[in-house]
Amino acid sequence: MKEEDIRRSALVHGYKIFKDGSLFNINEVIKKSRLNKSSFYSVFKDKDDYTLQLLQYIDGIYKEKISEYKGSDGLLDRNALQDYLQELARMSFFFYSLAKGIDAPKKDLLQMTDAEAMALTEQLKGVRKKPDIASFNKTLKFIEVIVLNPRYQDNDDYHRAIAYGVEKACSFIFEE
Q1: Last residue of a domain, one of 50, 68, 86
Q2: Which of 38, 52, 76, 138 is 20 to 30 A (C-alpha) from 82?
Q3: 42 and 87 fall within a common domain
Q4: Distances (CA, A) of 31 to 27, 80, 87, 104, 110
Q5: Which range of residues forms the domain containing residue 53?
Q6: pTM exceeds 0.70, yes or no
Q7: Cα distance between residue 40 and residue 165, in whole Å
Q8: Per-residue pLDDT averaged across 48-77, rounded?
């Protein structure tokens, strides 16, 4: 198998595992993509390298999706964008969990109770200097409010505000 075929297979199967909401580990990716460890590690240096490449691969898929969400007036469809933001929340925690070796929560973060958020915060203590799940959830809710408020769609700040919110939400993954 060529290097590019190995990379594509591992990334496609990693994305499928993410979409299915299955528990994620590198051995599962290797097994599902019908690769062996030596061919997998000839392309990816280690788990972090694979994680980063998978994130970039999925980011490309979501950027394509965002362009499909634009209506004939050039504005983003609010319902579709809300779905995207929920996926973004799930994706952010998925990758953060993967990078830190913690099982990604199955539940949609926007529906998480305070107690569940606190339990997850406890899990993340020690791997982050300031675990702050609540502010991450607030960021997503803030974006959602902007998305659902039609008056923001009439001015140029609408897309800037969404871009800012999404960037803030994504920065959570890499925050130390």
Answers
A1: 68
A2: 52
A3: no
A4: 6, 33, 25, 20, 32
A5: 1-68
A6: no
A7: 35
A8: 68
